Amino acid sequence: MLAAIDFLDIVRLTPLISIDLIVDDSTGRVLVGYRRNRPARRTWFVPGGRILKDETLDTAFTRIVDAELGITELERSAALFEGVFEHHYDDNFAGEPDVSTHYIVLAYSLTLSSTTLVGRLDQHSEYLWLTPAELLARDDVHDNTKAYFR
């Protein structure tokens, strides 16, 4: 496990690579979670997570889906690759001044047949299902999430 001070140096010096999950249901509503942690704390954001060192994309995808949605063993091939995005934040996980966070994000979309599978609250304090129009109209949905629907 990487010490927080070492991870802060990584955040200070390099971009992070992550996977975002653009999850919708059979009616077209999109899943967003209210972020507990920095960056993007206190905003609604799609689920996702960082790719770990030496972790394959397939392993990362399956781990992130399990951690964020509580769905085990879902393979990356079950999702549609939506593209590469960049997320820039003036903030960082530690709240350290003058350290920004830069993510290179691989976005994948998937449709869930049941909305009752969601329930992990490690990164998010609650979840909502919003239509794309509702999501775009809200001031408390982060712009990086809105970018997936513009």
From TrEMBL:
InterPro entries: GDPMH, NUDIX_hydrolase-like_dom_sf, NUDIX_hydrolase_dom. Mg(2+) binds at residues 48, 68, 123. The record marks 124 as: Critical for catalysis. GO terms for molecular function: GDP-mannose mannosyl hydrolase activity; metal ion binding. It comes from the Bacteria. Binds 1 Mg(2+) ion per subunit. Keywords: Hydrolase, Magnesium, Metal-binding. Its cofactor is Mg(2+). Signal peptide: none annotated. A motif (Nudix box) lies at residues 49-70. Residues 12-150 form the Nudix hydrolase domain. The keyword Magnesium applies. This is GDP-mannose mannosyl hydrolase.
